[in-house]
Write a structure and sequence with these properties.
Elements lengths: L5 H18 L3 E2 H10 L5 H13 L3 E6 L2 E6 L1 H10 L5 H23 E9 L2 E10 L2 E10 L2 H27 L3
Antiparallel strand pairs: 1-3, 2-3, 4-5, 5-6
Helix pairs in contact: 1-3, 1-4, 1-5
Length: 177
């Protein structure tokens, strides 16, 4: 795309900001890596270096939730991206836009539907189920179950059916007795 220059380095950092801005949700390192690798934008080691540099320069911030670290944009990064977006080649932006349009639903599902479990004792596990939208929990349920098998089954079913289950729970709760 470019010669290995400071221009290329700057564009690659802008591309990372562009991806986060376009997808409109915070992403994990593995999700960012997937976008970058599937679109052959840069190599893995450069990506990790750029993410680190963007955090140090306060263009990105990170936070942990459910044992995962998420990257999010800062005001500084949004302003910078708006000012320098023309430096990203239009064909690259178009490819990223298509990719994001095609894959956003899958990423949203991974990010917004959460489930984990922990062992309390030999026959007691707590399963935590969540649906999150714009970093705000819509539903957060803790269930006490008797086995890992039940905990895993509940998590699998939650991940597959959370939107429907959430709607069903709301409907049951708002019915008049």
């Amino acid at each position: 795309m470019f010669e290995n220059s400071s221009e290329e380095l700057a564009v690659n950092k802008l591309v990372l900001l562009y991806v986060l801005k376009k997808i409109e949700i915070d992403l994990t390192n593995s999700q960012i890596t997937q976008v970058v690798m599937e679109n052959e934008i840069m190599n893995y080691f450069s990506l990790q270096q750029f993410l680190s540099e963007l955090i140090q320069a306060k263009f990105l911030k990170t936070y942990k939730e459910d044992f995962k670290e998420y990257y999010s944009l800062t005001k500084k990064s949004i302003q910078t991206l708006e000012y320098f977006i023309s430096r990203i080649p239009s064909d690259l932006k178009e490819n990223l836009d298509k990719y994001i349009s095609t894959n956003k639903e899958k990423v949203l599902k991974e990010t917004q539907v959460k489930c984990n479990y922990s062992k309390l004792s030999d026959n007691e596990f707590i399963v935590n189920l969540k649906v999150i939208e714009n970093q705000i929990p819509l539903i957060n349920i803790d269930l006490n179950v008797a086995s890992t098998k039940q905990a895993k089954l509940i998590c699998d079913n939650w991940k597959k059916n959370a939107p429907n289950l959430y709607g069903d729970i709301i409907q049951v709760l708002i019915q008049k007795p």
